[in-house]
Amino acid sequence: MTDVNIHEVVRERYGRIARSAPGASCCEPTCCGGGEADPISSNLYSEAETTGVPAEAVAVSLGCGNPTALIDLAPGQTVLDLGSGGGLDVLLSARRVGPTGKVYGLDMTDDMLALARANQAKAGVTNVEFLKGEIEAIPLPDAAVDVVISNCVINLSPDKDAVLREAFRVLRPGGRFAVSDVVVRGEIPPAIRRDMELWAGCIAGALDEDAYVRKLRAAGFEDIDVEAWRIYPVDMVEDGRFISAFIRATKPK
Length: 253
Fold this sequence. Notes:
The chain is α/β, with parallel strands linked by helices. The chain has helices at residues 3-19, 47-50, 55-59, 88-97, 110-123, 160-170, 190-193, 196-200, 209-219, and strands at 78-82, 102-107, 128-132, 145-151, 171-184, 207-208, 222-231, 242-250.
C-alpha cells in the first residue's frame, strides 16, 4: 500500500459521490458520512445554518462534525478548508467572514471541485476560491490564512505529519487550527490499517488521540485540545473504539 494508492482510492470514491449528488451516500457502514440516519454524519448542522445553501452542498457533506461551530470567525478573516468537498463548510464560513474576508476550499478531486464551484455560483458567494491540490502540499504561500478548518479529511491522508506541517506553514502567527476528525482509542489491527476501502471510509487512517497531539506539537502548534464528542456504536466499527473529535490548536504568535 503506497501513498499514491491511498490517494487514488480516496479520489475515486469521493469523485463517485460528487457525481451522484444530490442525495449522495457512501452506501457503506464505514464512511465519512452518507445518509440522513448515518451515525457519523447525522445532526451536525442546524436548519438555520443550512438555509440558503444549495441542496447539493448539503447532500455531499460527508463529515464527522461541524468545524464552523468550533471556532469564532470574524469579518475580514481568511479561512482555509482542507478537503472542502461539495463546499458546505466553505460557504458557511464565507457568511461569517463577510465580504471583506476570504475562504479557500482545497480538494484533490475534480468532480468535487466542479460541484463546489457550481454550489458557489448557486449561492451567489463571491468571497470564496476553490483550489485543486493535496492537503500534504497546500498551494498557498506562508502565513496566508487566519484559520484552518477541516471535516473528517485529515484521517484520509497517508502522511499526516506533512498535512500538519503545511497547516502550520500557511497559518499566520496566532492563527488557529480547528478541525473535526475521526480518532481512535487504542490500537488498530494491522489488517484494518492495510484495508484500502477502510482508508477511504475514514477508519483505517484514524490517528490515536495521543498521537494526534504529538504530531500537532511536532509541527509547532500549542494550546492543543482534543475533545471527543461522538462515540460510534460498537456494531458499526471495530470494538466501538472510533470517535468523532474536535481538535483545536494555535500557531504561536
